[in-house]
Amino acid sequence: MTRWLAGLMLLTGMVWGQEFLFAVKSETPATVSVDKQPAVAMTLAPGTKIWYRVMTLRLGTTHTYTYFADGRPIGTYDVAGYNPDAYPLPGAARGTLSEMKTLKSKIYPGMSANYWVYVNAGADLRGGAPLMVWQDGETIVGNADLLRLRLQIVSDNLVHKKVIPPMVHVLISPGNGGEATGTRMRSIQYDTVSDRYGKYLLEEVLPEVEKTYKVRKDAYSRAMAGASSGAICAWNVAWYFPGQFSRVLSHIGSYTGIQWRPEQNQDGGYIVSHRVRREARKNIRVWLSDGSDDIENQAGSWPLNNIQLANALKMKGYDFHFRFGEGSHAIAQGALDLPESLAWLWRGWEAGKTAETFEMEEAERAKPLFRVKVVNREAW
Question: Which residues, listed in sequence order, are joined to residue 168 by a DSSP beta bridge?
């Protein structure tokens, strides 16, 4: 266990069943507070600077935890109490993960990016399989996936239960090099409101993938997914290319002004909700999730902009679902919801169809617009 702990990131919360492992690197004794309860002592792993504690916590919800050293907070995050479909089901065939591949771009000159392909067992690679493209792919491959979405396990389980079709999942990382200040191209690629990233996928990434894996061409069988900046990126691809992608999974989406460049006449992500309100409805089905403790900074308000987008989608009659909880800027709620969100996103899919006009569910149509209640200030 000591060797394993030594390889962990600075802040870690790992879960298996009801056992939650919290670990943090600190020069001085550390404590951890879970769900705003009094902080409790952690144990030093011999020969390391890693402090850890194992706790039994409730499943089916998210938990917020904060680490302290010398009484000072040194990090806060959320972790999922995963649902049963986030653990391997007996008899469920496991998919296959490709080796890492690297692609050099012309659309983003000087940039290269890594990607992997995960294929669910039973995917139709002769006739063409449904496709999902996941941004920040490096976070959902191998052991990293166990700390986050558990996409591989969840999708295999849902395929086994015949809830979703077996798919080809393209897990692509943000690029390095190119025009970014420094080396990472993530914000330029993901947060910029334009059709550039969609062209990158359609003209460079997918043609490389399709040399090995046959995927379907119809938008009905294609989905985009991401978290934070990856979420607005996923939305933008479907928005600009609805004939290529019609399903979107958006967690803690950065629909804010991160790449607002007024001197270049470039809008920020806040414009997304206004475009949805003002422009003709496009055939996109979208699952959104965010929490009231998400980020507030100079780029904008993540919670308020997600609510803005949800209300815009509702007013225009989109087929959407919005889960708004109390979480922070973490993947925990998205990970907890993944079995449900994937099932909802792909509900009704049939191999023999190539198109469907998505309509708002009657249960959603009967609900009111989302409203914000101020709960931490006096009204007068």
Answer: 119, 131
Class of CATH domain 85-365: alpha beta
Supply φ then ψ for residue 273, to 5 degrees: -65, -35
**CB–CB of 341/287 below 8 Å?**
yes
Q: In the CATH scheme, what is the code of domain 2-81?
A: 2.60.40.2450
CA distance 153 to 380: 50
Separation between Cα atoms, residue 165 and residue 88, nearest integer Å:
18
This prediction's pTM: 0.94
Say how far apart CA 307 and CA 337 lie, in whole Å: 18
CATH 3.40.50.1820 intervals, the chain: 85-365
Q: Which two tokens stand for residue 292?
A: 């009231």
Is 147 in a helix, a strand, or coil? helix
Q: Is 342 exposed, middle or buried (0-12, 13-18, 19+ CB in 10 A)?
A: buried
Q: Identify which of 193, 308, 309, 185 has the alpha carbon closest to the alpha carbon of residue 261.
A: 193
Task: Please give the helix or strand (H or E) that residue 336 lies within, else none.
Answer: helix 332-345
pLDDT band at 6 (very low <50, low <70, confident <90, very high): very low
- CA-CA distance, 153 to 121, in Å (whole number)? 12
